[in-house]
Amino acid sequence: MSENKDQKFVYDFTEGNKDLKDLLGGKGANLAEMTNLGLPVPPGFTITTEACKVYLDSGEEPAALRDEVSAHLDALETSMGKRLGQADDPLLVSVRSGAKFSMPGMMDTVLNIGLSDESVAGLAAQAGDERFAWDSYRRLIQMFGKTVLGVDGELFEDALDEAKAAKKVAVDTDLDAADLKKLVKHFKKIVKAEAGRDFPQDPREQMDLAIHAVFDSWNTDRAKLYRRQERIPGDLGTAVNVCSMVFGNLGPDSGTGVAFTRDPASGHQGVYGDYLQNAQGEDVVAGIRNTVPLADLESIDKTSYDQLMQIMETLENHYRDLCDIEFTIERGQLWMLQTRVGKRTAGAAFRIATQLVDQGLIDEAEALQRVNGAQLAQLMFPRFDDKATTELLGRGIAASPGAAVGKAVFDSYTAVKWSRSGEKVILIRRETNPDDLDGMIAAEGILTSRGGKTSHAAVVARGMGKTCVCGAEDLEVDTKRRRMTVGGTVVEEGDVVSIDGSTGKVYLGEVPVVPSPVVEYFEGRMHAGADDADELVQAVHRIMAYADRVRRLRVRANADNAEDALRARRFGAQGIGLCRTEHMFLGERREMVEKLILADTDEEREEALQALLPLQKKDFVELFEAMDGLPVTVRLLDPPLHEFLPDITELSVRVALAEARKDHNENDLRLLQAVHRLHEQNPMLGLRGVRLGLVIPGLFGMQVRAIAEAAAQRVDAKGDPRAEIMIPLVGTVQELEIVRDEAEEVIAEVARQTGVELRLALGTMIELPRAALTAGQIAEAAEFFSFGTNDLTQTVWGFSRDDVEASFFTAYLEKGIFGVSPFETIDKDGVGALVRDAVAAGRATRPDLKLGVCGEHGGDPESVHFFHEVGLDYVSCSPFRIPVARLEAGRAAAQSAGSDSR
User: Where are its TM segments located (predicted)?
Assistant: First the structure.
């Protein structure tokens, strides 16, 4: 982006507010908001995301940035009464990233900037604690070396472990000042050897290099991967927060912690978080030392505890949501270092939303916006069977719920490799760090022996909806030998383990699962008003009820048989948007289709069609009965006929072997000829859909007759069938007119024969670009459109959906060409533009044209919002995704209403 000469790139914490997240990032905006509220925030300033964008685009910081930073640094030094890195009483600062959206651990932070060989003595003198000063210095060199100079962090960790081993101590707090002086010397040698330069002694150089490193961290592989996973735009950039240091590592009356105003795992109110005495903030989130529960702070420092509880209440009421808070206590003085609306599990999201409604902090419309379809889908996954026989290995902290089973792996590379081979894996680490993100995404669940609910593993897992158990101290994890030891039990890599993120329990072997209570609720086996219905089911029921009240989009199911239709109806389906009749031609009926394909005469073809007719009719009777009173859209036969014939290679071998044995099979020979005759290089673009109905006389007529007779039978049985007949793969209105004329003749004939008045709607699928572009013409012959977005995506992009996802989609996602697969979420700019134009053209011709979508996009949360926006009447999806679509349709309507009111 180009630089505006009048643009302001640096804001003091006193100048911003929580609504400036685009400019100041989430961290900077919230630091400013807490400052405005009069909370104890260390002074500092924020470098904007706009400065980052200029830097990333040009490779250089904005021309005005250095002078702006200098001016704000001067003001900070004046307010603090000390200068950055001065020898006798140094001002130290932290340089921390802060994007608009929380990306925990993905970008860089450097603490204690301003320390040098000269100023470390001054810090020791001012603090009256030599050990503290040298501990802070070694932390700076370690973080700066890894983050800014690109030194392998393991080298520093190994050196620290060696120092502890030499002293025969288990934790770094047992190292004294002399030990830390030696460690600093060792760390500086590592920097010189690995980075090819000395650790910088100039404090301003330290700060400037750290600022650039934070900018650069926006485009690290792990940050880009996290953004793709969370669908965060890649052009936002990060702000940089420069904050005066406060120290939690000044002894037992100091410490650092992370607090939640409610439990992010369950949503329950209470005192939740972690605290670590004599530590800096990174120690908590990195999980390198096991913390104590936040409640223990009351006995450690009651004054700070009481003040923190009051601040937490203030922040939750102000933000009207669960808040995630980082704080430091410096010799009894509480300081707030960060707050944000906290990440939470799916269950917590639903519980908290309804709790806040009951407390009068938000209304039902806002509660609906606080949850989403992806979270609801998570709640529908199975859980472990409480009645199963299990072998308990140990127990940790329930960091992110779910039931995960997989083979134990001990590094991210193996997790990714095995996952791509189809294996389900559990990633086991002492603690995770941002470099483990690949493996965390690939794994079914994450298990660590260190850390708590606010460690890296816990925070990232909750954000991804991934099962996680942290801080299982009884588990001795040996990543080098690729094994885990628990008591006398050894778990080798490849052994199956099961982890329960709701209880923190870890089991050896595979534990069976049972349906989720949320699924039982949707299926009617658990009533939200029943005494045994848990709080989660109650919360889901309340939010779903509101979503159903406000949504405009109706939700139908893709279902091909009565069993699926009944399940879909229990899940809240308001009809069937897609019944694929080709699924009715499989199994024993395949032979009848073979006879149809092999028919040489009209008589043979008619005989084959008459054999299929009663079977088709029976299927439709069952379907109309299951969906009585609701619309059922039946798609006439769509796939290429050769799909109903044997595999060409297999059949060729069979015929060749028979010929070699002089044992000819006339039917096999005819089948082989038919397979060759129908073979196509691109069958999805060949003889299928409406083209079949035009080329094979009577095929579509038989299906329409079966539908009409089934509807008549249901009317005679006092039912209320509402059948809709959909002609697939239409590219021109002439195709539709021919099939429609035939269908109307058949329907009229059935009506005369049965004496039942039949009103069957006739429409088409819009799944070809030409159909979308000529939608105005096609609407003259169609009473409804259903967008087949799977095929429309395939034909717009020129992708074979059966091939490309396995061949090159991974590369496209990694290179950022796709943020998400266009078969998963609709491509709004390409496919979506055709849908939008077809809707407008179709309704211009026929204002009462009914419009729906029946591709898999119909159950995708983001796509549902698009379909609401363009004015479709309904979406249709697989039965399991119906609740998700209902919820998202409600959210889309509520968002639209909110936008209109503003």
Answer: none
